[in-house]
Amino acid sequence: MDSTPVNWEALDSLIVSFAKSEHLIEDSSPPSSPTASPSSSSSYQHRLLIRQIRRSLEAGDVDGAVSILQGHAQVVLDDHRILFRLQKQKFIELLRRGTERDRDSAIQCLRLALAPCALDAYPEAYEEFKHVLLALIFDKEDQSSPVATEWSERRRFDLAGLLSSILRVHFQAYDPIFLMTLRYLISIHRVFCLRQGISSPISDLSERLLFEDRDPPATPQESLCEAPPFDEVDIQALAHAVELTRQGAVDSLRFVKGDLFQAFQNELCRIRLDFSVLDELVLEYCIYRGITDSATIPSSDLANCISPLSDGEASINNIGLDGFHEVNVDHASIREDDSDIHCPSERTANHEDCSTSSVDNLQSYSGRLRKSRYDASKERRRKRWRGRTDPLELNSEVTISDKDNHNAMTSAFDASRDKCVEDKVSRNHSFQNSSIIDTRKYELVLEMKELANKGMVAEVVEEVSTMDPEFFALNPTLLFQLKQVEFFELVNSGNIQLALKVACTHLGPLASSNQDLVKPLKETLLVLLKPNEEALRKVVPLCSLANNLQVAMGRRLGIEEPQLMKIMRATLHTHTEWFKLQMCKDRFEEFLKIDRLKEVNVHIRGDTLAEGHVDNSVRVLSQNTSSSSSKLPDDNSSLSQASSNESLYDENAVIKVMEFLALPRADAIHLLMQYNGNPETVIQQIFS
């Protein structure tokens, strides 16, 4: 599973889009560009509004939430079901304050707002109104009282979640695709591991990232007794994709008038994320992939997402503006004077200056990067990490009529913010006591990756060998792949003699010492028959090669892969295995770009590079999922169908057996296989 191929460039695209949409990175795109479209900005502002309303209700500030709704979503308040729940919560919050003045205000709320609304909100509303009156005589601390649940602060969070679900549809303010994809993949991963009895290697990460509870669903106003006017295939697809009951799937579809993909988005967005954990994972990934420049990131954030490395020469200076610290790398040690700058040929003739077998000296070599190349690397379009802005700082865009309510809402979060600052200071102190991140190592690895991506493999092999003569001895497959590219380039340029020299000098000896490379060597030599660019692109995807090089060099330098990579490998692996068991295609994988994440040319894979680094939990998962796949039917047609993710039988037949017998999809298909695909025969045999 650790060697599961992933299209990291596709993930880069999803993450950059997410980070821009959430304003986590500075977007240098001009206003007229698609990435900075008005609709994107509007969606972001609406998500901020939803977050503000959620926070207001969770803090018990009902008036603050209502004020925002009046200014931006009055139609939601026109629904008396929602208005009644808001007024009921306001009544409880006024009583919770405990003063005589607030008690009088609570009674006024009963008379002027809650009672009139209870008359026509929904059939049970008046009974609920009479029940909540008991809060006037039972204390909030009395856990045995008949209104203990009304006093519970859990009601705040349920109401906040319900409003979030409704407003998300009203504003069409759905989360970025990356967030929905991450939720979906992790959810399937959990179900797969649970059903197969497998220990998940990412359980600690997934538990920190996703909350157990979900926001309440937004329910339609129509009667639930009506027959659903939806295709049963859609109902079952939604129910199984997001773990709903059949009735829950029907309600979800009814709320969006049968739009399957909109209902799917609604249900995914109900799964709550811990954004502080998410942002740390994304930041760590962005630094590793060169999307953001680590030198511009507050050290408190760096401490959260990157393991400190040794022998750093960066310095931390207090910038004195916002309580954060910034890493300022001494670039003088990198951009040395011209006397220390050598071209590759000079460097070859002077191995004693920079060649060493010690990994520690790789770092010293990074200071010898050529000035022009270092400047070029800094000119790459790196984004500046901004971090998440607290929505409460954007109150200028939200009209709040009651200043007292606003002050109450702000003060309610002071304690939470102070705690966050204390945590940051603590992590910052710990970070300062350890060695500072050596950003030069990242620059060096990213530079080599960029050269490999451009096909400049001869330069890569020469420079890496000069830095660390043992590197390719430890990574022979990677050297073979790099020399493959060099071979193809020479063939395509018509230099057959030099290409054969590369094959004799490097490819042949590598294959003779590693039997796994014999077949790739034969395929490589076949290119002599068709010397064209198409053959090069087919056999050697440069992006995969560059990624493998980055992983290997990073590990050699002590740079660990981001945890997000571990999550994606594990979840994409179990996604594939899950739908093999289900013997069907995932209807939502194209919508969530999962198909693009899996679009990797597997002629070149990093299995050999990763072989020595697979932890025990990963090995166990791989072995168990392999054994689970072996439980599939032996029938050749079923195996071929499962591998191509196409349904074996008519979907309506599968759904009918699932529904009548309350069976999982795979079990229903197995029964159909026994009775020639006839659902009526299956049902008759089971009940006879």
Task: Please tell me about this protein's structure.
It is a single chain. With 688 residues, the chain is an all-alpha fold. Among the domains are: 34-171, no CATH class; 441-556, no CATH class; 649-688. Helix content is 62%, strand content 2%. The strands form 2 sheets. The protein has a two-stranded antiparallel sheet with strand order 1-2. It comes from Platanthera zijinensis. This is CTLH domain-containing protein. Residues 28-43, 626-644 have a biased composition (Low complexity). Residues 338-354 have a biased composition (Basic and acidic residues).
Hey, roughly how much beta strand do the residues contain? under 5%
CA-atom Rg in angstroms: 30 Å
Alpha-carbon distance between the two ends: 44 Å
Strand order of the largest sheet: 1-2
Classify the secondary structure makeup into a structural class: mainly alpha
Helix content estimate: 55-70%
Low-confidence stretches: 307-359, 366-372, 374-379, 392-421, 424-437, 602-646
Largest sheet data: 2 strands, antiparallel
Biased composition (Low complexity): 28-43, 626-644
InterPro entries: CTLH/CRA, CTLH_C, Ubq-SigPath_Reg
Protein name: CTLH domain-containing protein
Organism: Platanthera zijinensis
Q: How is this fold's topology laid out?
A:
Layout: H1 8-21, H2 38-58, H3 62-72, H4 74-77, H5 80-97, H6 100-118, H7 125-132, H8 148-151, H9 154-171, H10 177-196, H11 203-209, E1 210-214, H12 232-241, H13 246-255, H14 260-269, E2 271-273, H15 275-289, H16 299-305, E3 315-318, E4 325-328, H17 344-349, H18 351-354, H19 360-366, H20 371-379, H21 403-412, H22 414-433, H23 439-453, H24 457-467, H25 471-474, H26 476-492, H27 496-512, H28 518-526, H29 533-539, H30 542-556, H31 563-582, H32 594-597, H33 607-610, H34 616-629, H35 636-643, H36 651-661, H37 665-674, H38 679-687
Antiparallel strand pairs: 1-2, 3-4
Helix pairs in contact: 2-3, 2-9, 5-6, 5-9, 6-7, 10-31, 12-13, 13-14, 15-16, 16-22, 23-30, 24-26, 26-27, 26-30, 31-34, 36-37, 36-38
Pfam family, one: CTLH
Biased composition (Low complexity): 28-43, 626-644
Biased composition (Basic and acidic residues): 338-354
